[in-house]
Amino acid sequence: MTTPHFHLGDEVRDALSRGRPVVALESTIIAHGFPYPDNLEMALAVEEEVRRAGAVPATVAVLDGCLRVGLSRAELERVARSPDLPKASIRDLPVLCALGRSAATTVASTAQVAAWAGIDVFVTGGIGGVHRGWEQTLDISADLPALARLSLVVVSAGAKTVLDMAATLEYLETHGVTVLGYGTEVFPGFYLRSTGLPVDARIDSPAEAAAVLRARRALGLPGAVLVANPIPPDDALDEGEFNGWLAQAEADLAAEGVKGKAVTPFLLARLHALSGGRTVAANRALVMNNARLGAAIARCLVGLSA
Amino acid sequence: MTTPHFHLGDEVRDALSRGRPVVALESTIIAHGFPYPDNLEMALAVEEEVRRAGAVPATVAVLDGCLRVGLSRAELERVARSPDLPKASIRDLPVLCALGRSAATTVASTAQVAAWAGIDVFVTGGIGGVHRGWEQTLDISADLPALARLSLVVVSAGAKTVLDMAATLEYLETHGVTVLGYGTEVFPGFYLRSTGLPVDARIDSPAEAAAVLRARRALGLPGAVLVANPIPPDDALDEGEFNGWLAQAEADLAAEGVKGKAVTPFLLARLHALSGGRTVAANRALVMNNARLGAAIARCLVGLSA
Amino acid sequence: MTTPHFHLGDEVRDALSRGRPVVALESTIIAHGFPYPDNLEMALAVEEEVRRAGAVPATVAVLDGCLRVGLSRAELERVARSPDLPKASIRDLPVLCALGRSAATTVASTAQVAAWAGIDVFVTGGIGGVHRGWEQTLDISADLPALARLSLVVVSAGAKTVLDMAATLEYLETHGVTVLGYGTEVFPGFYLRSTGLPVDARIDSPAEAAAVLRARRALGLPGAVLVANPIPPDDALDEGEFNGWLAQAEADLAAEGVKGKAVTPFLLARLHALSGGRTVAANRALVMNNARLGAAIARCLVGLSA
Ligand SMILES: [Mn+2]
Ligand SMILES: [Mn+2]
Ligand SMILES: [Mn+2]
């Protein structure tokens, strides 16, 4: 797709036109995941990790009504310095384009823009999913229907930590997303290596992930291949300790009466404080780990060695 | 699409072939919304309001197995005099076509037929949505997946009044429908100007609605732009008063043991009686208001001034 | 679709290329529905019933990474002798193809493979649906979105017996699947002739089912026509008796603490034992009955007399 509202960075355009491996990255984690300048440093480090693993990073954001794939250093800095930048899901993209606005992209909108750009691999920390309490609210992330519809590999360390994990996996099963465990039979738990819930199938190499996406496309099947990549053992949090922090954070949430969209940021900030920063360190480690795996899968998809 | 089962009225065919603005209208409100002859009078008045605002009305119905877009006076009269006419959702259309039957069209089926006809704007009173009690019944209107799939602007004063409004908005968010508030940041409440729930974005002109649909299409994104247009202040009901009628109507519902598809008509009839006809007057006012806005958006979409 | 991973049996290829009627059949019932050799005997009997009714049977399975449509006697035998063969839904197909594995196909994956092969009719016993307890688990079969998306006639005696039937019908309504009762206004209950829940429309001939699918396609509407065919009166179980067995089976389930994917097989095995084999006899009878109707519809779709 080329419209006036769509722009590929030079490095990304060059890579795509030459059939070189490209890995898409979201910008919500930059704008909202960490404070400045830690967020900029991390964005640059993740891009560097993708390059070191032999692929080209393509961070996605919407700036002044233009869908940008592959940000310059100045654009990354702009996103990192904009804590008020709204978070845009897929349905917001036409509004931003039509009205000339800016936003950070979520898992759903990054995957959508990546698919439009012809990028086959998208690396994130954790996908959105079915929210706890969905049986009262019907609050289900737009990330899930996006994964059911878009044809690409998404690498994550599981789903964001404050979701109903079992219901999230049921949704993915109902809607036909292939969920592969990388070196594991169980779906990973973001900061933890396991949720105890089974994945659809286990793979043990980047080439297998690439082969499954290729088969999906050869069959003409819409929808994503979700590669669930557990946090490295040395970076994983202790389950008992983490559950203690989470219980405390949820008690604080109830005590302060936080509701709606403020819930997730509140819980993450509390987890950060209660863990003395260990949740943030783990988050960084798992994103770097996913960046390496995503680059390797992207290489396999264009016929290079992982 | 042209098949033996599809027929455009002369005025509609002429307008579409000349690139003139057209606004689709549903027929369920005619067959089931009001008694004869009030329903016929209102159908004619809404069509007239669309014309006065510079667009061509295209009321949709299925008559003797034929999908009709743009009804003659005699056809409108036939629908208005048929309280037993079934209500057809999208999945019923092939049955009606195959078996030569007649039906009034819902939001979902009107939007579908409009999209097939190449009509870009559909005006209704309120869309269907997630029914209260969905957490036991899974009762969710086929209008919602239709909005997620069809590419057009739908103008409504919110959703039908007896729904779980928060869950309806969650569904629209999950499935990527762009929800724009016309001159408001909050989703309107049909008879009331506000539900207190936020919309995706606010717009302040018909041209902005048209630009968002155009951007959606330029991006190749399926799905509708829902323009939520609050009832005019002078026509809105008083919230406290309305909630009193609604509570009474629901008590009567429970007392009489009404269930299933009979619930909505029962509640609407009780609201009519309890309010001394003020719910019906408000309903008429909001539909006329939507007709004017829909015509203006349709004009913008074909390059005319609103 | 032709890829290295797709293979039509000779009889099926010949029939499709000559425009002769073909009926797809699933393999999960062979691998998991009955013990060997009863399952092989039944698979052969169902195929024979399709042939006797003037159509060509096309049993679907995945063998060594190849999607096979129309199994040889040796392949049927292999499936029948493999109680450990996994059950593959649509999202598993690319994994099986990519990694060269084998599996039996469910309703969803059989319908998908049939659609790819250009087969217009699929016969099964009962479709999957919304599981009881979905309001806690969100457990909804991938069969339902498959029916909402794939264009073919599916003949079944209702849905599998251990589901939330009302919620299953709500899902089908929301997502636009046309549900036709064959000679009935009520959705059948697998072993029983009625669930007491209404269907979308009643038909009384195979030609009407064929006409509805043709209309769906002429309209460009995605999604299936589900023909709900009640078990023949002489084969139906007694409702009171059946409900007693079911209550006992559920009590045993609770007592033994069975959970998750083991629930359905456990219940079916208990029903078999408690009924002295009468549930199995009824299951066989309804599949044979569906095979006859499916063949008649397939004949109508290619312009032959039913
Ligand atoms: Mn949400
Ligand atoms: Mn409903
Ligand atoms: Mn399930």
Could you explain the architecture of this structure?
The structure is a homotrimer of 306-residue chains. Chain A starts with 5 loop residues before the first strand and ends in a 5-residue tail after the last helix. Chain A folds into two domains: 1-119, 3-Layer(aba) Sandwich (Indigoidine synthase fold); 125-235 and 285-305, Indigoidine synthase domain (Indigoidine synthase fold, 3-Layer(aba) Sandwich), CATH 3.40.1790. Chain A is of the alpha/beta class and 306 residues long. The first copy, chain A, has helices spanning 10-17, 28-33, 38-52, 73-80, 93-99, 107-117, 134-137, 143-149, 165-174, 206-218, 239-256, 263-274, 278-301, and strands at 6-8, 22-25, 56-63, 66-69, 87-88, 103-105, 121-123, 153-156, 178-182, 201-203, 225-228. In chain A, helix 3 packs parallel to helix 13, helix 6 packs parallel to helix 8 and helix 11 crosses helix 12. Chains A and C meet through helix 9, strand 9 and helix 10 of A and helix 5, helix 6, helix 7 and helix 8 of C. One manganese (II) ion binds next to helix 9 of chain A.
Write down the domain tally of chain A.
Answer: 2
Largest interface, per-chain counts? A-C, 31 and 27 residues
Helical run tally of chain A: 13
Flag low-confidence runs of chain A. Answer: none
- What structural category arises from helix and sheet content of chain A? alpha/beta
Total DSSP E strands of chain A: 11
List the secondary-structure elements of chain A in sequence, H or E: EHEHHEEHEHEHEHHEHEEHEHHH
Tell me, rounded to a whole number, the average pLDDT of chain A.
95
CATH secondary-structure class of the largest domain in chain A: Alpha Beta
Level of helix content of chain A? 40-55%
Q: In the CATH classification, which architecture of the largest domain in chain A applies?
A: 3-Layer(aba) Sandwich
- Tell me the overall shape of chain A: globular
**Whole-number radius of gyration of chain A?**
18 Å
CATH fold name of the largest domain in chain A: Indigoidine synthase fold
From the N-terminal CA to the C-terminal CA of chain A, the straight-line distance is 29 Å
Largest sheet of chain A: 11 strands, mixed
- Kindly estimate the percentage of residues of chain A that lie in beta strands according to DSSP: 5-15%
Q: What is the assigned CATH homologous superfamily of the largest domain in chain A? A: Indigoidine synthase domain
Oligomer: homotrimer
Bound molecules: manganese (II) ion
